[in-house]
Amino acid sequence: MYNILAVSFGEIYLKGKNRGIFEHKFMEQIKYAVKEFEGVHVYKDSGKVFVETDNTDEMDSIIEKVRKVFGSSVISPSIKTLKDPEVIIDKTKELFKYLLTKKDIKTFKIKTKRSDKSFPIKSMDFSAYVGGKILQEFSGITVDVHNPDVEIYIDIKRDCYISSERIRTLGGLPVGSNGRALLLLSGGIDSPVAGYMIAKRGVEINALYFHTYPFTSERANEKVKKLKEILEEYCGKINLYSMNMLEVHKAIREFCREEETTILARRFMMRLAERIALENNMDMLITGESLGQVASQTMKSMAVIEDAIHMPILKPLVGLDKAEIIEIAREIGTYETSILPYDDCCSVFAPERPLTNPKLSAIKKSESNLNIEELVEKVYSTLEII
Amino acid sequence: MVYLDNSATTRVRPEVLEEIIDVNLNCYGNPSSLHRMGLMAEKKVEEARKSVAKLLNATPQEIYFTGCGTESNNIAIFGILSDLREKNNIITTKIEHPSVYNVFKELEKKCQVKYLDTDNKGKINLAQLEEMIDENTKLVSLAHVNNEIGVIQDLDNIARVIKSKNRNTKLHVDGVQSYGKLKIDVKKVPIDTMAFSSHKIHGPKGVGGLYVRAGLKLNSLIFGGGQEGGLRSGTENTPGIVGFGKACELIFENFEEENERLYKLRNEYIKRLKEIEDIKFNSLTDEEGAPHIINLSFKNVPGEVLVHYLEGKNIFVSTGSACSSKARDNRILDAIKISKDYEGTIRISLGYFNNFEEVDYVIENIKQSVNEIRLITNRRR
After folding, report:
1. Which residue range is the domain that position B95 belongs to?
2. What number is the ipTM of this complex?
3. What predicted TM-score, i.e. pTM, was given to this entire model?
4. Using one digit for the tens of pLDDT, what is the confidence trace for A213-235?
5. Does A346 sit within 8 Å of B323, measured CB to CB?
6. Is the Cβ of A145 closer than 8 Å to some Cβ of chain B?
């Protein structure tokens, strides 16, 4: 039925002189999202983006992909036609017949918008004219301009687009329109959600994963890769960096107190993340921390961890409950992968009684037993892009 | 590379692969077809059936091909119990493979299920078995060789105890780990059914076998074209079956020597492993243990960490227990009561392709890895 998808901008509308940049990024993201389909053409026509396909059977799959691109508010599967009144009427009838197969229709309304003023009939007149033709063709229906069962929308631009269904999308801003940041991706439930939320505000995301192979499994890598791939449906291409923290854990174990392990290790992770971010032109870090969720996420712990670096750390989940985070994880499709049991199941490095109330001075004193630069170098030398 | 996970699955022998390729290319007819291509395939399947039967001293008519060991266990147990009543009871052990254990768990809904205890080496107690059997006992099912700890159950005496207490009680043996490894003679031991699998003995995956004593009628779980005497409908996996037959033939030709060689190799590993401090063998180290399975625990070494260390050296073993100390979910290690310190457990399982030249390399790397891991796990403060 539908040969084109009309995509309306969301918040981009609020932009002023730099709107062009946002629209450009948006087009890029849409093109990336539909790159696997053949015979698809993406273009702009007076204020909307259109995704046209030669293969109408694939429209549902295309909708599924485009729906996930941040920056739009609504998408409408449409029929693209010539701007000839008779052709428009034929196609509108065809659409109406199709809609009748999907639901029971008693009332309808035709709405026309004429951006192209060279089209000879005014919007209101054209709506009434097409409506009359529909009434002649189909029996048992009436016009209701206030609360119709279906509204058919005829959008006359450079071409003409006829649509009825409107699908709400995710909103947000197009990825890449708002800088770059590095997500600390753990394989758990929270961090993919955190990445999603920041990407939604137009940020290009890359991800960093710490493992302690051979104390963790290679299957854990596969799981993180899978999460990255799910996020890519929303965020576009993500570079996934991984590093092995084993040397840090060995040193902490040898020279520091057990209950400090998590805090110390996380300070090292921040140092390494900051380094990767700076080297790759990213301005902030993102973590999935939620206040009070675990020992390392108390107010005091977070403050001590953040002290290790200068770079700002975004924590979009800080005020959410676990149940709220899980709800988003389910919506975006990461939950089922996150709960696979291949995460750091080895509890060797988890202290039995982790600190919840660490003192910065005590942590710094512990760190003075470690050669921080050398350890950072050692971990950094295990960097892989997976 | 040293592959020491042969109880999980094995590498196909080249002679077997040749047969599989040949059947796929030249003898691909459906054994049920009337024409010559069908007959050729049927003949191949019947040849394989003879080879498979020979390893049990069974007749070919007593052998049925299935899709895998799990399927064989299910067909046998559900088949024997097709007229199960509530007053009946059935018996198994606490250390069965999931393909039997979970069937019995399911059957708890239908009748009384009794679980035999084992000693700390995994052996069942014949007196307890005798006590459990009564006039309503339909079935006793147990593994000949346990897949994780390699203990060999004394089938002769088990069968004797069962049949003398209640001659109507059936005995099903899960022979997946013993078939082709140990001498089994169904003419001498009154086993009623026995399951086994091709891929554990260097045959292809996707083929299992079931021995059903002549005269015993099993009700089928799968209905269709009536292949395999109606017990397992579905077009025969001719290439797989032929490969399985070839693997059996190769074993038969050389049974005694290979059995002896595996025992020697196993004993060499055991001797060398004893050089490592603070270890414990969970498998039997004498002839009551299988020739191909060594199961051992290391103090303060999580099993899966050792598995990952060794894979880094291209040595492949398996772990017997979950590493997380909170969630120990290993039924078998629980049954034989392994102490907390020794939770880290690995299984080394040998096969045809393993040899004595590998031992030094493996032992050196186990020693080195265990030392490294212990440096980390033995907390200083």
Report:
1. 14-253
2. 0.70
3. 0.82
4. 888 888 888 899 999 999 999 99
5. yes
6. no
CATH number at residue B151: 3.40.640.10
Q: Could you confirm whether B68 is annotated as catalytic?
A: no
Same-domain check for residues B58 and B206: yes
Tokens at A75, concatenated:
């998408």
B156 and B182 inside one domain: yes
CB atoms near residue A35 (< 10 Å): 10
Interface with chain B: mutation pick from A348, A349, A370, highest number of B CBs within 10 Å: A348
Per-residue burial over A137-174, b if 16 or more Cβ lie within 10 Å, else e, is eeeebeeeeeebebbbbbbbbebbbbbbbeeebbebbb
Return the structure tokens found at A335: 């939950």
Average pLDDT over residues B316-333: 63
List domains and CATH numbers for chain A: 4-168 (3.30.2130.30), 180-385 (3.40.50.620)
* Chain B residues within an 8 Å CB radius of A345: 304, 322-324
Per-residue pLDDT tens over the stretch A64-99: 999 999 999 999 999 999 999 999 999 999 999 999
Contact check, Cβ <8 Å, B324/A346: yes
Establish if A138 touches chain B: CB-CB under 8 angstroms: no
Of the pLDDT bands very low, low, confident and very high (cuts 50, 70, 90), residue A341 is confident
Token representation of residue B337: 């009561």
Both B220 and B296 in a single domain?
no
**Is the Cβ of A347 closer than 8 Å to some Cβ of chain B?**
yes
Which residue in the block uniquely carries the two structure tokens 């089928």? B220
Q: How many CB atoms lie within 10 A of CB A18?
A: 10
Nearest to B324 among A214, A256, A347 (CB): A347
Mutate to test the interface with A, among B300, B301, B305, B321 (most CBs of A within 10 A): B305
Please write the tens of the pLDDT for every residue from A22-50.
888 999 999 999 999 999 999 998 889 99
